[in-house]
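Continued from yesterday's entry.
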Amino acid sequence: VPKAGACPVLPEALSLPVLHLGPPAGLGALQVIHRLPMPNLGDELHHSGWNACSSCFGDATKKRNRLILPSFVSSRIYVVDVGTDLRAPRLLKVVNSEDVFWKCNLGYPHTSHCLGSGEIMISTLGDPAGSGKGGFILLDGETFEIKGNWEKGDKIPPMGYDFWYQPRHNVLISTEWGIPKCLGYGFDPNDLKKGLYGRRLNVWDWTTHTYVQAIDVGEDAAPLEIRFLHNPDAAEGYVGCTISSAIHRFYKTEQGDWAAEKVIQVPSKKVEGWLLPEMPGFITDILISLDDRFLYFSNWLHGDIRQYDISDTRKPRLVGQVFVGGSIAKGGPVTVSRDEELRCQPEPFSIQGKRVPGGPQMIQLSLDGKRLYVTTSLYSAWDRQFYPDLIRDGSVMLQLDVDTERGGLAVNQRFLVDFGKEPDGPCLAHEIRYPGGDCTSDIWV
C-alpha cells in the first residue's frame, strides 16, 4: 500500500497496486497489473487487515473479500472490495473521520484485525486531538459501520499502536509507539525523556474487554509490532522495540499474569555524521513464520534484515542476515567508529542498476516460508527526516529467498518493484497483504 506525498510537485495520489507475485522468469517479468487511486489527500495509509481471516474458520458465510485500510493521519477508514475482481480492487466504502471521533472519541487508527464474531477491530494511537489514547474501534463486519468502542471500563492505556489476541488464554496484548501529534513532526531526540514514546505492553482481559496489566519493557523502548506464536495453544510471543532495538519475549506466568524478558539486543553503533552519536538498529517490523520456527525482523536504520531460529523460544539463534540499504553503508555521510557486530561498514545496496534509498521496513513472508518480501518506507514524516532520497526517488519492494532448512537469507536479484516509477510520481510503499492470508494477520482461535 503506497502512501502519499513522495513527490512535492505532483498530486498526492494514494493508490493500492495489485502485483503479480509469481516467481519471475527473468528481469522485467514482474509487473503492476492494476492501481486503485484513493479519493483523499494526506491519509497516510499505514497498516491494513481483512474483514475475515482464520478466526472465522468454519463459518461458510464469511469470505476474505474486503481489505480494511485505516488512515493513520486523517483517521478515515477505507473498505476495499477485493472479492468481485481479485485483480482489480475497487473502493466499497469510506468511514469518515468524524464518525471515528464522535462515536469512539478516538483517532489515528492503526492495526485492523478481524474477530471470530465477524466484527472488525482497529487499534488507535490517540484521541481526536492527537493526544495519546490506546483504544479500539469496533466495525460491523457486514455494513462496516462503527459500532463503538471495544474496550470497557475507566482504565485506558496512555498510548496505543499494534495488538494481537489469543482467546484460548483470554488475552489481548497491545503496544505503544508514541503521542501521535508529536510523531508527525519527525523524531526529536529531546522527546526521549519527556514520556512521549511508549514503554509498555498493555494486557487486556479478552472476555470483559478491560485493561488489566501493564508490562514495562524500558524507557523509550517504543514497542511496535507484536506477534503471538501461531499455535493457538501457545501462551507466548515476541514484540519488537524500535528505539531500544530489542526483541522481548512475552509469556504467561504460572500465576496467570503476563511477563516479558529481553531475548535479543541489537547493539547501537557509535557514529559520526548522524543525528546522534550512537545509531540504534531501529527495529520497525517483526514476523513469525507460520510453523513458528523462525522470527524475522528489520533494522530500518542499520539496513539489515535478520532471521532467528526460535525452536528454543527463550534463546533465539541468528541464522540469516542480509543488508538491503540503511544509513551505515560505505561512502555515505555516516562514519561508523565503533561496531560490536561488523568489521566494516556494509557495501551500498543496488539491484538491477538502482541504488536503493531507505532501509528495510515492512516485511511479509510467503505461506511456505520461502520468500520474504520487503518494503522501505516507514512513515512519510520520518522518511523525509532520515531518508530524504525516498521522497525524491520513491521506495521499492524486494524479495529475499529463505533457506527454510538451515536458515539463511539472500536477495533475489530478479525481483524489484520500483515505486519511483509510478505514473503519477514516486510513492512510498509500506505494508503487504496476501489475498489468501498471511503470517501477520491470521489468528487461529
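--- second protein ---
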Amino acid sequence: MMGEKGLGRILLLLVSFLPTALGAFVGINIGTDVSNLPEASDVVAVLKSHEITHVRLYDADAHMLKALANSGIDVMVGVTNEEVLGIGESPAAAAAWINKNVAAYLPATNITAIAVGSEVLTSIPHAAPVLVPAMNNLHKALVASNLNFMVKVSTPQSMDVIPRPFPPSTAAFNSSWNSTMYQLLQFLKNTNSSYMLNAYPYYGYTQGNGIFPLDYALFRSLPSVKQIVDPNTLFHYNSMFDAMVDATYYSVEAMNFSGIPVMVTETGWPWFGGSNEPDATAGNAQTFNNNLIKRVLNGSGPPSQPDVPINTYIYELYNEDKRLGPVSERNWGVFFTNGTSVYPLSLGTSSQVTGNSSGVFCIAKQDADPDKLEDGLNWACGQGQANCTAIQAGQPCYLPNTVASHASYAYNDYYQKMQSVGGTCDFQGTAMTTPDNPSYGSCKFTGSSNSSSSVITPSASAPFSPQGGGSPTSASLVSELKYVICAIAVALMSI
C-alpha cells in the first residue's frame, strides 16, 4: 500500500503537469506610468470582460492584488529593480517581502510567479552579483511558508543578453555574464521554473538595417525565395518571434542546460510613433498582436522545441503616457483607459474580437476637458434623450466608472439615433468619430452588430460580466484545483 509521502509526491507531480494540460496562454502586462490610471476594480473589470486569464504586475501593488482576489486570473507579481539589492543581501528582507506581498493575498488572489527585477543584467548591471541570491532568498522564504509549489521565481531578461541571436543555432549568452547566467540557470533547473524572456520583434526589425523583411516580424507568411532558414539546422523560421525564442533555447543549451522552458514576459508592437518611427502604426500593431495570439494559442514551440508551448505576455494593457523617450515608448497599450480598445484585437479563448469595425461610432476624446465631458454626458442623457440605462450602477457598461467611458456610451447612443436628422458628434469639441467598435465584453454600443437602444443584458458568451458574475473559467477552476492539490500534498508530506 502506498504511503502518504508517496501519494504526496504523486500529487505534486500532478500539479507540475497542470499548466501543460491547460495549454499555452496569452497574458498581458499592466504598466502604471499612466495619467488617470483607472481604479484597480475597473482594471480588473476590463480584464474579465475580455477573458484575460493571466496578468503581470511590475510591482506588488496592494490595490491591484486585492481587486484580483477571486477573479480566476493568474497573477505574476514583480520585485522592482530598486528592491533587488536589499532582498539579495538580506534573507530577512526577502521573507518580509513574501509575507507582505504574496502570503497575505493567497489563496484568494492566485499569485503564481514572482519576476525578480526587470532586465537586471542590462539595465542595472551592478546588481548582477546579487540577482540570483535575491531569487534564492525569495524561494527559501516561499519554502518556509509552504508556498514554493504554488509560486515560481524567475527574472525577465532582454534579448540584449544574447549578442548574436541569428542564426539561432549559434546563439550564446554574453560571456561577461557567464557566472551569473550559470547560477541563474541552475536555480531555474532546481526549482522547475521558466526562463523569462522579453522579446521584441519590433526592435529586431527596426534596428536590423533592413536585414529582415517586415512580414517576418509581423508573423506574415513569406514567399519561398525569402524563407528564413538556419543554415546549420535547416530549420525554417516563420517569424522573428520564434527565432528569438529559439536563440534563447540554444543559448541555454550552450551552457549545458536543458529542460528549462522559455516564457515570454514581454512582447508587442507600438501603435503610434514619431516622424522617425514609420513602422509604429495601428495597422502593424493590430497585425502583430492578433497573429501573436494565434501563434501562441496553437500550443506549439519553436523549431528546436516543437512540443513546448510559448506562454506569452503582451506589452501592454494601457498606454503609459508618462514614460520618457521616443513617441512610440508611450503607445504600446491595447486599451485606452476608458476600457475601449485601441484597435480590433482577438483576446481570450472564445476568439472574442474587441473593437470590430461595423460602422461609425462617436466616442469621447482621450484628452477632453473633464468638466466639458461632464456637461456633455449630462446633456446627452438629459436633453439629448440618449438611453443611459446601461451606464448606471450594476449595468453592463457601468465599469469602468469614469466620466470618459460613460460619456463615450452616451455620446454614441445620441449620435446613432440623431445623426439622420442632423445630430453631430461634437459635444463642445469633446467627441470624435471612429470606425472601431468601442464595445467590450457584455457592454455593447449602439450601432454594433449585437446592440440595440433598449436595455442591454449581459452576453452569455463571456464567462465573466464586468460586475464579476458568471461561471468560472477553466483557468480559474484549474487554479483552484492546483491550490487544493498543493495544500493536500504539503499536508501529506509533513506527516
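Confidence is low (pLDDT under 50) at residues 1-21, 449-480. The CA atoms of residues 217 and 240 lie 5 Å apart. Will compare against the first tomorrow.
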